[in-house]
User: Fold these one by one.
Assistant:
Number 1:
Amino acid sequence: MAGTHIGERPAVASATVATDSPHILIVEDEENIASFARMYLEAAGFRVSHADRGDLGLTMAQEEKPDLILLDLMLPGIDGYELTRRYRADNATPIIMLTARDEAVDKVVGLELGADDYVTKPFNPRELVARVRAVLRRADHSGGATDAPKDTIIELDDLRIEVGGREVFVGGERVALTPKEFDLLVTLIENRGIVLTREQLLEQVWGFTFLGDSRTIDVHVRQLRRKLEDACPIQTVWGTGYKVPAKR
Ligand code: CA
């Protein structure tokens, strides 16, 4: 009888966030900023979790394996730099740093530690959502900037790059690079013999939505030189950009 039928099928509201939608972890101690970001990210269809301390954020990141971390820098517990340093040791999850206005030094340090992008507070929520989408999209086709087939192995003197595994070796020793350092190195090598401007590199490695300045490239080249030492094939072309020289 229809009258006894109480098992109404639950309405599938279009606002329901699918369990396979990307998961964003917000690590931010300012409650109003965190809830503002959460509100817009959830409205855009993301799953969101939140930690109000750096140490808690690190634990949640390790346990929940989010698809992206939105990270404040000044935090109780451990700060955003320390969280990035520890988390980056064995995770390539994209990180977007939330920085205060004009904290140029912070941005450079953050990028050196392996942040993928940064958003300046106070932020426009639409811009935040756009950045999150852009960074996720790039992380999605990991191998990001490079078009090389997955099984490509690049060898340049002492330097060996396994493109598929995203691993770099110097004289047989593995060197840990951040995802962006890796993409920058491979992009320059794939274009060897050609000078690439900082703007071209920004667009190719970070994507056109990245609003960072071209100094970001200099920071990453410096890191590559430090990590790869004499095996780093990147040359500075004054007033223009960078290149890897053509094969001898
Ligand atoms: Ca803070």
Number 2:
Amino acid sequence: MELWYTEEHTPNVRFSIKVKEQVLSVKSPFQQIDVFDSEEFGRFFTLDGAIMLTQHDEFIYHEMIAHVPIATCPAVRSVLVIGGGDGGTVREVARYRTVESIDLVDIDKMVVDVCREHLPFTARGLEDGRVRLHFEDGLKYIRRFTDFYDLIIVDSTDPFGPGEGLFTSEFYGNCFKALTERGILVNQHENPYYANYSHAMRRAHARIKEFFPICRVYQAHIPTYPSGHWLFGFASKKTDPIADMDAAAWNALGIGTRYYNTDLHAGSFMLPNYVKEQL
Ligand code: SAM
């Protein structure tokens, strides 16, 4: 008997992965957490039915969400990751010895516990000595900080359910306040293709632009995310993601990556016309 995991991307589009085994199915106080093994993508986990990451393609998302901002501003010392309880983003940030502190704020401790047990390839990032874990709503956490973080990465679920507050003007305004003068905000920015996601992306981008003088969008191709065309927001107080990125300096660090490189860094900000029109 064949078993398939199916995610609804729109009422008319579904994405299915053949499953070898369902490893876990639990409900936290915030969301349904399921873990599977598959032929094509290895181990993967979902929250409320949406794929969060798969073993075989998570490198794309986690490299792009972490290396683009830090290659742009190597002086980053204090980092805040909101969401990201699987540890993949933290794993990539922790590759920079110059980073001194990494606060991870995830509303759901059960996600961290499940990923530590079943997805060690990303959760191992959480074991770095510079990581401090906080289990609370990122919307509330960020209110407590002024001029404190050099980099804030919002690696959240989509803008409904627990993640909804992380796409509000209040949240982006507090991120601006919490960032230092060289501060950068990067966020997972949904996809430009399907109407429901595109609407969320446009709304988030307009809200970020209310606060940040530099507000750009870059892209990556992620096979298991809706439409495969995924966007990231890049906002900063004064750092330009292309003009200020020193490719030779980043390459001299010798950080081996499977997706990110400094050519792709610049290219990822060159968006298709239909996406530029949305912004
Ligand atoms: N890369 C994935 C994506 O793009 O959809 C996100 C992965 S990560 C697992 C998403 C995390 O955001 C979850 O662990 C969830 O618990 C967390 N989260 C959702 N809403 C949150 C909130 N308001 N504050 C902090 N964490 C939140």
